[in-house]
UniProtKB/TrEMBL annotation:
Organism domain of life: Bacteria
Protein name: Fe-S cluster assembly protein SufD
Signal peptide (residue range): none
UniProt organism field: Leucobacter allii
Region Disordered: start-end pairs: 1-41
Family listed: Belongs to the iron-sulfur cluster assembly SufBD family.
Residue ranges occupied by any SUF system FeS cluster assembly SufBD core domain in the UniProt entry: 144-365
Length: 395
């Protein structure tokens, strides 16, 4: 296995390392693509909070998930019925485990080593099907989970992961999209206020296939969900969308990675968040890699944050790594700010109160993402949840 402290070998012929710890030959990882990968937690060092991948996270709250024993038994889940969609539990040594990706950090590796069985959801219908996978009643004991979502070639489907109730969960979610398939995966976090959720999502998108990955984080004391989408076949398309609303004392973190590793691939990343209340903290890190062989790539990522009150913090870091000049386009953007005064004034001039005008702005800001889910019942429920957040205080 790779040594946990990731380094690059910079030795050159004729050069001799100094005797002061050999630091000349140990260069820290600078880019997402160079991170070490392993399913063995022992290959990753103890987390201190000073590491680039953890520096924004309140790691003291994660000790049980990073260093303790995790219950890897089946999670209590319910799966809605849909024609052409199957659900089963498979052994951890099944060949279908590990196809989409493997951990890049300690939390995911700890969960990978602890789960007993993986929950496999397979979409095989060419007609669009919707299936809801609900997870609740997980309790407060530290748990590990592993979910695999597979779309067969030329299938079309929407899979919604609904998370609610109490939890202290660390999990890996694999998404395998077959050639020509069109899959939307939605992960909704509406946990209880004290819940802790670590999740790493890995996706592999086939030739001329399309994946829309949507994250909606509204509940939970600490939620850290990191999707990695690998466009490793020609013509693959990946969209990563997210909406989040952080209240007082809540930490919501998303680290998004789009890896273009084939010609004529396309990606779009849009994450939008709102923050209100003392100590509300959001983190968004977006990494896009366009590899040397990914000619004709078209990529753009953006993050927007709307600050609703004092005492909040939004960290937003877009990164773009390009290894070839033969691309269709690439760009990134990030913005964090308060209400647009002119927008509020315009609404007030139309007879709308200032409080209601602010609510309308926030509602439209977040629902732009929620409306992309494609399931009316889920969209209406999440719209109501946003309304409830706004009803508490927007001032």
């Amino acid at each position: 296995m790779t040594e946990a402290v990731a380094t690059k070998d910079t030795a050159q012929h004729g050069l001799t390392a100094h005797s002061d710890g050999d630091w000349d030959n140990r260069v820290p990882v600078q880019t997402r693509s160079d991170r070490p990968k392993s399913t063995d937690v022992a290959d990753f060092p103890q987390v201190t909070g000073r590491e680039a991948v953890w520096k924004f996270t309140p790691v003291a709250k994660l000790d049980a998930l990073l260093n303790g024993a995790l219950d890897g038994a089946r999670l209590p889940v319910s799966v809605s019925e849909a024609a052409g969609v199957s659900s089963e539990w498979i052994a951890r040594d099944d060949a279908r485990v590990g196809r989409a990706g493997i951990p890049e950090e300690r939390g995911a590796a700890a969960a990978w080593g602890a789960f007993d069985e993986a929950h496999l959801v397979t979409v095989a219908s060419e007609e669009r099907r919707t299936v809801v996978v609900a997870r609740d009643a997980l309790g407060t004991a530290p748990r590990a989970g592993h979910t695999i979502i597979e779309a067969a070639p030329h299938s079309t489907g929407l899979v919604i992961l609904e998370n609610s109730g109490a939890a202290q969960l660390s999990e890996n979610v694999e998404i395998v999209v077959g050639d020509g398939a069109k899959l939307t995966v939605v992960s909704v976090q509406q946990w209880d206020d004290e819940a802790i959720h670590l999740a790493s999502h890995y996706a592999s998108v086939g030739r001329d296939a399309s994946l829309t990955h949507i994250v909606v984080s509204l509940g939970g004391g600490l939620v850290r969900l990191n999707p990695s989408i690998h466009l490793d076949h020609e013509g693959a398309n990946g969209e990563a969308l997210g909406a989040y609303f952080a209240d007082a004392g809540q930490h919501l973190e998303h680290q998004v990675y789009l890896d273009h590793d084939a010609p004529h691939t396309r990606s779009r990343v849009t994450y939008k968040g709102a923050l209100q209340g003392e100590g509300a903290h959001t983190v968004w890190i977006g990494d896009v890699l366009i590899r040397n062989n990914a000619t004709g790539t078209d990529s753009y990522e953006q993050n927007r944050n709307l600050v609703l009150s004092e005492g909040t913090r939004a960290d937003s870091i877009p990164n773009l790594e390009i290894e070839t000049g033969d691309i269709a386009g690439a760009g990134h953007a990030s913005a964090t700010g308060r209400f647009d005064d002119e927008h509020i004034f315009y609404l007030q001039s139309r007879g709308i109160s200032e409080e209601e005008a602010r609510k309308l702005v926030v509602r439209g800001f977040l629902l732009e993402v929620i409306a992309q889910i494609g399931d009316e019942a889920t969209e209406e429920r999440l719209q109501a949840a946003v309304e409830a957040e706004l009803a508490e205080s927007v001032r």
